[in-house]
Structure formats: C-alpha cells, structure tokens
Design brief:
- By secondary structure, the chain is α+β, with helices and mostly antiparallel strands.
- Helices cover 49% and strands 24% of the residues.
- α6 packs antiparallel against α7.
Length: 381
C-alpha cells in the first residue's frame, strides 16, 4: 500500500533527524542535507538558509541550493536596515506563507532586488529561533508560478527549521566545550609548571638543610636537620605524585605511602631490625587533603623509628590502608614498641603536630598505647 503524503513527510523528517551531523553540530554539512532533500521532495527550484551575523546587522546566506542545476552556492548578504518591514515581521517569530510573494505587503522591500530577479513567485519562510531571538531563516522558494502551500508542506518547513536550530545549538555547545577543554589544559600545564618549580625549590632547600646537617656538631641539631630533610622529601615526593596525576586532582595514596616508608626506613632503620607488614589497598586522595595527610604519615613513621624501635630486638610495624563504600579512607599504624610514656600522651613526640594536621582535613584521629605497643588510626572522609 503506497504511503500518503503526510507519511512521506514524516519519513523524510525522521531520516534527517537521525543524521549524525546534528549531534556533531556540523551546520554546513547538515545544511547541504536539508537543502538537497527538501528541494527534491517539495519539487522546488530554490531553497536557502540564512543566519544573522554577530552584530545582528546583516543576514548572511549560509548556503543556497538550485535543484535543476544541482548547485550549492551563496547569495549576497542582506542588510537588515534595507528591509525593516520584512525583518520586523519575521522577528515576531511568525513564519511567512506566501502563495504569491510578489503581491505580499511584508515582502515588497524584496521585490525588485530579490524576488523578480530570481523569478520567485511563492515562498515559505520559517524563522530559526535560538534563545528567544531570531537566529536565521530557512526559505523555500517556488519559481515561475504561484503555489498554494499545503498544511503538510508548512509543517515540513517548520520541522526542518527545528533541525537547523538543534544543529546550531550543538555547534555552540561543542565550541564552548572545546574552549573549556582548552582552558582546563592551559591551567593544567600552568599548574604542572608551578609544581615543577616548587619541586626544584624544595630540592634546593633540601640540599641546603643537608649541608647544615653535615656541619652539625651534636646529636640534637643533627636530629633537627634530619627531621627537616625528611619533611622536605615528603613534600617533594607528594609533588611528584601530583604532577603524575594528569590533572585529576588526586594522589595515589598506596604508592605514596610505600615510597615514604621506604625512604624513612633507609634514613632511620640502618641499625635496626625492622619487619614491616604493609596491607595497602588502591586508594586515591584529593590533592587538597594530600599534603596534611602526607605530613601526618611522615610524623607517625619517624616517631616509630625514633621512639618505638630499639636496637638488638625485632621491631614490627604494620601499616594498613583501605577505603570503605562511603568513601572514608582509613589508615592505621601499629608497632610493638613500649608505648607512649604517660607524660607525653598529650604533648611531645609530634602528637601535637599530628592532631593539628588532622584537624586541618577534618580527620578522626585515634591513639591507643600500652606497654605492648602503639596503634594510631586516621579516618579521612
């Protein structure tokens, strides 16, 4: 059973609506598809699409098509001030249905410069509206004779105008997305450059501290300089992980903890028998919380080696890292030392620093200490 005219219109519209050029925002390729399809389907000699320029003073021809010549081309720009009545009418978001265009009052300004030279006798002109404003027009032009446009043909023109609007909106969205991606990339490059420079500065500072460490004549000052060296190393290592994060604003806490433990073990554990048990899950921590967290880990590990571990015995440290389904990160440290002396449970041994840094990132700090060892837990939401 042959399809009726309305069904054919719907079939054409459905086919065009599935065109990938719409989603890509490729208005030029979509315009070619629409002009060619509508010209042949409606048996029109001329179909064209016009868009306003940036300052809204001109209507530029995006693309025009002649069916008999099978030719795409562009008409000269149309200045709005030369046709005030016409643009006032179309700007009211009203499409123009003209069965005899050369007799229409609203089109008399186009008569001698456009209609008669191109032998246009009947037109459908549908405004292309974006953001409530006139963005352009799609024109269906019948030449040589007048024409009574059917309701299906009018609705067909309106549907095509909607497809053009959708393509233009996607074109703008794609441009905004590309600009945003460019800005993000530029900021990422700038941030990486700043991180590299900061890392270089930390390296210089670390070298200066080591120079003073070698000059220190007593154990107290040597310990101070060694502690500073470890902290600058911790910050420098954290910057390495930040630079390697490719702009996703997170740090691999498992790899960082492993690297930090290795460095502190090499620095403080050369005369100690230390057995380590590391149960570390894959966890990413946000950069905003990474630095305080790194300094906390450094302080806890240094305290283990300086105060909990002893020579001529087996020293044990267990470190665990995991993240629950609610996103809470839990880190725990357990040693087999003699515990924190009562006089130092509230102050000293870096506990005040650990508490202060924990407050910065709203972490829950837990400390359990006895003669059998100390367990410190940190929960970061």
């Amino acid at each position: 059973m042959p399809l009726n005219r309305s069904s054919l219109f719907l079939e054409v519209i459905e086919g065009l609506s599935k065109n990938p050029h719409i989603g890509d925002g490729n208005i030029h390729k979509m315009a070619r598809e629409i002009l060619h399809k509508s010209s042949h389907f409606l048996k029109l000699e001329r179909v064209n699409i016009w868009l306003t320029n940036e300052n809204d003073q001109f209507m530029n021809c995006l693309l025009a098509y002649q069916r008999n010549a099978d030719k795409y081309y562009q008409e000269p720009p149309l200045e709005k001030t030369s046709c005030p009545k016409y643009f006032a009418h179309i700007s009211k978001n009203e499409f123009i249905i003209s069965n005899n265009s050369q007799k229409e009052h609203c089109m008399e300004e186009l008569l001698h410069n456009y209609l008669i030279p191109n032998d246009i006798c009947a037109m459908i002109e549908v405004p292309i509206i974006m953001g409530g404003k006139l963005r352009g027009i799609i024109c269906f032009e019948n030449t040589s004779e007048t024409r009574n446009w059917t309701n299906d043909e009018q609705h067909f023109g309106i549907a095509l105008a909607h497809l053009i609007t959708l393509t233009l909106e996607n074109e703008e969205k794609n441009k905004y997305r590309e600009e945003l991606e460019k800005v993000v990339k530029e900021k990422s490059l700038l941030l990486n450059e700043m991180n590299h420079r900061l890392k270089n500065n930390l390296t210089i500072i670390n070298a200066l501290i080591k120079s003073e460490l070698n000059k220190a004549k007593d154990a107290y000052h040597k310990a101070l300089f060694m502690n500073l060296t470890n902290k600058t190393f911790t910050l420098s290592s954290l910057l390495d992980f930040t630079i390697e994060s490719n702009g996703d604003n997170t740090v691999d806490l498992k790899l960082f903890t492993t690297k930090l433990f290795k460095n502190i073990n090499e620095t403080y554990g050369f005369e100690l028998n230390v057995k380590s048990i590391l149960n570390l899950s894959e966890v990413q921590i946000k950069e905003a919380k990474a630095m305080p967290c790194a300094l906390i880990l450094n302080e806890i590990l240094v305290n283990c080696y300086k105060h909990a571990f002893k020579k001529n015995r087996e020293n044990l440290i267990e470190i665990s890292l995991n993240q629950n389904k609610d996103g809470v990160i839990k880190i725990s440290f357990k040693d087999n030392g003699s515990g924190i002396p009562k006089i130092l449970k509230n102050r000293g041994m870096g506990i005040d620093s650990i508490e202060g840094l924990s407050d910065q990132i709203d972490a829950i700090l837990g400390i359990e200490s006895s003669s059998n060892g100390t367990k410190i837990t940190l929960e970061i939401a």
